Each structure stands twice: as C-alpha cells, then as structure tokens.
Amino acid sequence: MSQSTLLKEPKQRKLLFSAGISWLFDAMDIGMISFIVAALAVEWKLAPHQVGLVAAINSIGMAVGAFAAGALADKFGRKAVLLWTLVIFSIASGLSALATSFVVLCLLRFVAGFGLGGELPVASTLVSESVPTADRGRAVVLLESFWAIGWILSAIIAYFVIPDYGWRIAFVIGAIPCLYAYVLRRTIDDSPRFLARQRTRKLRFGERMSAVWSSPHRRSTVMLWVLWFCVVFSYYGMFLWLPSVMLLKGFGLVKSFEYVLIITLAQLPGYFTAAYLIEKLGRKFVLATYLLLTGASAIWFGVATTEGMLIAAGICLSFFNLGAWGAMYAYTPELYPTSVRSTGVGLAASIGRIGGVIGPYLVGMLISGGTAVTAVFIVFFVAIVIGSMAVMLLGKETKGSDPDYMDYGLRPV
For residue range 270-280, what is the model confidence (pLDDT) as tens digits? Predict the structure, then answer.
C-alpha cells in the first residue's frame, strides 16, 4: 500500500488525524513551557537553575506517566489510557495559569507531565497496531509530524500572546485538549491487535516486565533504553532552552521568540522526509543518519555567533532532530509483540524522560556556573552520537517484520 493509499483509507486516515490532534496538543503544551519559562525568568526573576528545574520536574512527571500508562494500556486498552492521559495533562495545564508561586507551578507541571508522558507512547502504539505492516513506519512518523505543528502553534502563541497578554493566558489555552478528549472518545477505536488479544490470557504485570527482558527482546531493550535516554536528554536540554539561549546570545525576548518560530518550521520537512525514507531505506539507517546529522547541527548551533548562522544551524537542528524522533517512535513499537508492546514502549519512553529530567536541569546548572554555550552543546553532541551508535551496533531492522511471530508461541494476529 502506498502512502497515498494509506491516506485514502477512511478509517486509518481518521485514526491518524484524531490521534495526531492529541499529539499536537501535547507538543503545544511542552513547547509553550520553553517560552513561558523564558518570560517567567524575567517576571519572577528566576535563576537559570530554577528555569531548568521547571523543565526537569515536567520531565519527571513524564517519566512516571510513560511507565504507568504503558503498563495500564496493555491491561485496559490503548484508547482508554490515551483519553485519561489527555484529560490529566490539559486540566493540570489550565490550573497552572493560577499558580502564585514557583513551588505551586512545579507541582502542577509534574501532574501535567504525568499526562503528557503517558499519552505519547500509548498513541504511537495505537497507530502502529492499527495500520498494515507495510505502512506502519510511515504512519507513525506522520503521527509524529503533528508534534511539529503543535510546537509551531506554541511558538505563534508565544510570539503574539505572551508579550502582550502574559504567560497565564498561554496556560489557559493549554486546557483546550480537555474538551477534545470528548471528541476523541467518539472518533477512535481501540487497536485491532489489542482487541484480538482479549481472547487470550492477559499477561500479568510481572510477566510483561520479565518478557521485555527475556532473551528474544533483551538486546532491543538495552538499545532502546540507551537510545531514548540520549535522544530525550539532548532534545529537552536543547529545545526547552532554545528561547533562553537566544537571550544569552544577546537577542531580546520578542526577537528570540521570532527566531525560534522560524527554526521550528523546519521540523515539518524533517518529519516528512523521514516518513518517506523510512519505508525506502529502513528504520536503522534513517534513525542513525538523522541522529548523526543532528549532532553535527548541535555543534554548529553552539558555535554560531551571527544571526544568519544561528538561524541556519537551528533549522538543521530542528530538521534532523525531529526526523529522528519520528523514526524512533516508528521503530520502538515494532520491537515488541502485542502482548507486551505498550509496556515495552512505555518503559523505553520512561527511561528517556529521565534524560529529559537531567538535560534541561544540567543546562541550567552549567550556565549558572559560567559554562559557555558552545561547551553545553558539545555535551549534547556526544549524547546524540552515543544514541546513534547504540542503534547501529545493537539495533535490528524491523521494516516489513511482524513481532507477534515471536510472541512466546502465541499465534500472530
């Protein structure tokens, strides 16, 4: 089935678009945090390590949410968990507008992060299980492309809303997904593979955890945990600090938001090229290549001094990094059978969120200690190269394969 045929299948197109909108809202909320903390640093006179702490606490919530939602989705279904995580993060985001202190804001961002982190692996698992094998990778990368649209919307909101109306309004806008959860409940069905497994005995939580580390999947699990940690560590360390880094390089708040909006637009072609190449060249090649080019772009961005170099390096950083994210989300569910897939994906995402905790907080600590921006981006370059090497050395190609054939003697569905 070609890409055009996939998009003409009404049920699959409806699922992709519906789940994509939830993904869009997720990205919009996380993206707005990067802009809001830049504004809060000015209004509340936050130190750099406090700015990093807000992002870190958000990521701690995402780590807990990814782990919990992944396990729950294998027990109660992908759809139910997707809806509840959407409601949790949108309510917490809206309540963040009422925060009167730094501590209260951090508590609410933990709850919002729980929902955000839980939604992403469950949504990608749902889409991966609901399309034919030949289109599975492309469909998940296209789902991931909604992330770029959400991040672009967050940049637009930051540019046009925050300077004139304040950061609280941005959080109020972040509560909109709560209304969308009602629409989503009526427009999507649970995964056909999960529903088919309802006729067999469900594995208990301990059995699913053991299966993820059993001999058929141990190598893949090690690879995914290293990959996710490195990618999320570098992504959140770089992109949540992007507006603030612009300020450190001497640009004003509004000008920084404008540049980040331009850079963010490059995410879309990054996703679309990865979606095209992933079914042509395979998951391993696309993922490893895009990661290496992300690392090169990180070094370039770190040493950039002029406006032109900064924007060009930022565009390349967005293009390759988000293309790699799309490939990673497509690749991860393909390494586990249906019975443990959401648990395996959730665990990998949860380990990644630990990197998301460390990355932004580390940047805050380094900058507070007087470390140059160039040196900070060298750290991210090293992490990205390690992630790419893990894929090349430990990863296996999953293009066109069906992991249910290895599901401990259970019949594939």
Answer: 888 988 898 88
